[in-house]
Amino acid sequence: MDIFSIFDPEFRAYGRGVRGYGRERFALAKILEEKTPCPEEGTRYVPEDPALQNLPEAETLAPSLFGGLDVQFGWCNRHNTKLNCLEYHASSEYNLGTTDFILLLAKRDDIVDSWISSERVKAFHVPAGVLVEIYATTLHYAPCQAHKNEGFRVLVCLPRGTNAGPVKTAEKSPEDMLLFAVNKWLIAHIDAPEAKNGAFIGILGENIDLAEDLE
User: Fold this and answer.
1) Residue 49: is its pLDDT beyond 90?
2) Fewest C-beta atoms under 10 Å: which of 108, 124, 141, 144?
3) pTM (2 decimals)?
4) d(Cα 158, Cα 90) in Å, to the nearest integer?
5) What is the DSSP string of 105-172?
């Protein structure tokens, strides 16, 4: 699979690299590396971590991310090479890695009647230390590692409350069946663990695996 850089023109429709806040980015990456654990296998996601949340530099950065909305600073760590799912939020998401990592991305307008082909997914390499905004119109999920034998630690910044608990709707819209948690609409591949946990199965085609593309 071709792996683009977030600095390539192909990325412009999916997100952007955030300029400025160098001191804040460095401080967050340092705490992410020193204070957040990495599982031996798979990935672990924590929506909000006090070690990051209470950092003075996080308080400085937060108002710029979502225009004054409350922000949660969490993380997603360790090993992954597969697509498994695609999700979107009613907001952007911000990521920053202590090492390079890869994002598998598609566009919300690639969804047709709650279904999407994995052929619409593109891979983008994100360098360590770069704060990247993933637009609300972009489908994404867990980061992937950039090298065969190296995991990742990735900061995940979202409006506070995102990914917390299930949401009960009136179920009057087809989109309601995709709402998996607060501010989290999810589409799973049939081979993904999330499919067994009630996620809507709507990714058609191959469950992309970057394992053979990594060095």
Assistant:
1) yes
2) 108
3) 0.97
4) 10
5) EEEGGG-BTTBEEGGG-EEEEE-TT--EEE-TTEEB-S-EESBTTB-EEEEEEEETTTT-S-------
